[in-house]
């Protein structure tokens, strides 16, 4: 069985990149290949300009110290305090004195908001606090890249939001590239600059969030804005067919009354079938499903009106019973994984 098949993933230095997909899609295997805990049978893995697959054992161990890892289940040592857990990778590295290790651990616990819990043991910490200790530990060796494998899936929603804000702060404050593995679209919405969708060991779609939101038939954009299946609108009086469109608003267009302008300009009855407004990585984006009377060919000018104003317009269905559905397109890629270079 092939766990990863022709994966081509490039993560720019300093960005937060999310990899999403269902269980068994290959996400965790992918992240284990990034630090070579799993070695791919072919292809190359490069992190921060170094091709890890070409390094010797000793060189690889040295590079791994510059790749931090945050785990789903925290993986803290119960016999150690929060400070001592953060010090652990520094002890293994062996380059700092005990006093220097303690100072570094205290500094990082302050960064993650746990300066007053340095002496507490894991059993005395909440789930969110444990994950913050895990993040501080991952940052101890001053990594280029921070890998997060479902780091928020064991947390409640409020704690998840808190941890995601922390990861974004770490990214912006320390300039660390963050690669997130998740099955939760809310994680992508909250912090990611770019994202990729995995299925059956392949990357089927990828790009920056702003690009994905304006890309026609983007599966990721559909997941970010779930408006449900296409309904069966009755259409305007006398119309035998109805064209159903998904319209995405972003940037300045979110504050413009473009749908009402469309209705007035062309004297057309616009049916609102669904709508959603989301904040995606600090950007307000809206998606609306509308019905226009008639066939798509009858509405080409109206669609052009919306597209000329910077809106992304997709045909969902055409017909009185929504009998002609346009399937989402997909994109595939192959060969190279490059992170934070």
TrEMBL record:
Chain ranges of the ABC transporter domain: 1-225
Protein name: ATP-binding cassette domain-containing protein
Alphabetical UniProt keywords: Amino-acid transport, ATP-binding, Cell membrane, Membrane, Nucleotide-binding, Translocase, Transport
InterPro entries in the record: AAA+_ATPase, ABC_transporter-like_ATP-bd, ABC_transporter-like_CS, ACT-like_dom_sf, MetN_ABC, MetN_ABC_transporter-like, NIL_domain, P-loop_NTPase
Gene Ontology terms, MF aspect: ATP binding
Transmembrane segments: none
Any Pfam family hit: NIL
Keyword Manganese appears in the UniProt entry: no
């Amino acid at each position: 069985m092939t766990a990863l098949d022709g994966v081509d993933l490039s993560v720019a230095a300093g960005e937060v990149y999310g990899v999403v997909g269902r269980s068994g899609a290959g996400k965790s295997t992918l992240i284990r290949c990034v630090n070579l805990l799993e070695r791919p049978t072919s292809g190359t893995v490069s992190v921060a300009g170094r091709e890890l697959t070409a390094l010797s054992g000793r060189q690889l161990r040295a590079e791994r110290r510059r790749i931090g890892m945050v785990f789903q289940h925290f993986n803290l040592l119960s016999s150690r305090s929060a400070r001592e857990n953060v010090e652990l990778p520094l002890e293994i590295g062996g380059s700092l004195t005990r006093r220097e290790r303690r100072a570094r651990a205290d500094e990082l616990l302050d960064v993650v908001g746990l300066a007053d819990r340095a002496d507490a043991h894991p059993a005395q910490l909440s789930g969110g606090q444990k994950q913050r200790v895990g993040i501080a530990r991952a940052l101890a060796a001053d990594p280029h890249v921070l890998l997060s494998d479902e780091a928020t899936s064991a947390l409640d929603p409020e704690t998840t939001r808190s941890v995601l804000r922390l990861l974004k702060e770490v990214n912006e404050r320390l300039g660390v590239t963050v690669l997130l593995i998740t099955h939760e679209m809310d994680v992508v919405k909250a912090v990611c600059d770019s994202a990729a969708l995995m299925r059956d060991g392949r990357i089927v779609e990828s790009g920056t969030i702003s690009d994905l939101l304006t890309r026609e038939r983007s599966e990721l954009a559909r997941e970010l804005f779930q408006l449900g299946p296409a309904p069966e609108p009755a259409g305007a009086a006398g119309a035998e067919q109805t064209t159903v469109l998904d319209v995405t608003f972003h940037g300045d267009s979110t504050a413009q009354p473009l749908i009402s302008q469309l209705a007035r300009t062309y004297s057309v009855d616009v049916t609102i079938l669904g709508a959603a407004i989301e904040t995606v990585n600090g950007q307000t984006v809206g998606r609306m499903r509308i019905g226009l009377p008639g066939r798509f060919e009858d509405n080409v000018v109206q669609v052009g009106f919306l597209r000329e104003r910077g809106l992304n317009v997709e045909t969902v269905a055409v017909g009185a019973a929504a009998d002609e559905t346009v399937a989402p397109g997909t994109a595939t890629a192959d060969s190279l994984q490059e992170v934070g270079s």
